[in-house]
């Protein structure tokens, strides 16, 4: 089942992330060890609509729609940004720190954990075709 939402073309990245995490058990365990958090992404598209996805790097190494897994867990950190800026992060044309400093990326929750999502996004950059 695809996580892509047609109103949010960059959301295809969540399928790539899910694919990367489902590749090998060792890679998934390594990502969980490094991430140790549930990351939520709330994207806003050009028409003003908002949608959320999560990456569970705390327990399961899974990706889904919504702000947290359906098991009752809560996200540790939520990254709120425009879809075009998320696309920039995925394809390596934007820097999370610069987006944050310029106010284009808002972080709710544990800001220090937010820094741990960048390596996951870097892995996806090799697969990104945005």
Which SSEs are present, and which pair or pack?
Layout: H1 12-23, H2 25-35, E1 37-44, E2 50-57, E3 62-65, E4 77-82, H3 83-91, H4 96-101, E5 105-109, H5 111-114, H6 118-125
Parallel strand pairs: 1-4
Antiparallel strand pairs: 1-2, 2-3, 4-5
Helix pairs in contact: 1-2, 1-6
Domain SCP2: 23-122
InterPro entries: SCP2_sterol-bd_dom, SCP2_sterol-bd_dom_sf
Organism: Neodothiora populina
Keywords, please?
single chain; 130 residues; alpha+beta; 5 strands; SCP2_sterol-bd_dom_sf
Task: Give your account of this protein's structure.
38% of the residues lie in helices and 24% in strands. The protein is built from 6 helices and 5 strands, in the order H-H-E-E-E-E-H-H-E-H-H. The chain has helices at residues 12-23, 25-35, 83-91, 96-101, 111-114, 118-125; strands spanning 37-44, 50-57, 62-65, 77-82, 105-109.
Strand order of the largest sheet: 3-2-1-4-5
Distance between the termini: 20 Å
Q: Helix segment count?
A: 6
Shape: globular
- Measured by DSSP, the beta-strand proportion falls in 15-25%
Tell me the helix content.
Answer: 25-40%
The count of DSSP E runs of length 2 or more, i.e. the number of strands, is: 5
Question: Helix-strand pattern, N to C?
Answer: HHEEEEHHEHH
Round the mean pLDDT to the nearest integer and report it: 90
- Which class best fits the helix and strand makeup? alpha+beta
Low-confidence stretches: none
Query: Rg from C-alpha positions?
Result: 13 Å
User: Largest sheet, if any?
Assistant: 5 strands, mixed
């Amino acid at each position: 089942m695809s996580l892509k939402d047609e109103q949010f073309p960059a959301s295809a990245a969540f399928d790539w992330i899910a694919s990367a995490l489902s590749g090998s058990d060792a890679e998934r365990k390594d990502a969980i060890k490094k991430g140790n958090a549930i990351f939520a992404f709330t994207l806003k598209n050009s028409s003003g609509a908002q949608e959320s996805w999560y990456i569970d790097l705390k327990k399961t190494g899974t990706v889904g729609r919504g702000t947290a897994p359906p098991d009752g867990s809560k996200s540790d950190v939520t990254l709120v940004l425009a879809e075009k800026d998320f696309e920039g992060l995925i394809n390596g044309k934007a820097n999370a720190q610069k987006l944050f400093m310029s106010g284009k990326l808002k972080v709710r929750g544990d800001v220090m954990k937010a820094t741990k999502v960048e390596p996951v996004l870097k892995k996806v950059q090799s697969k990104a075709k945005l």
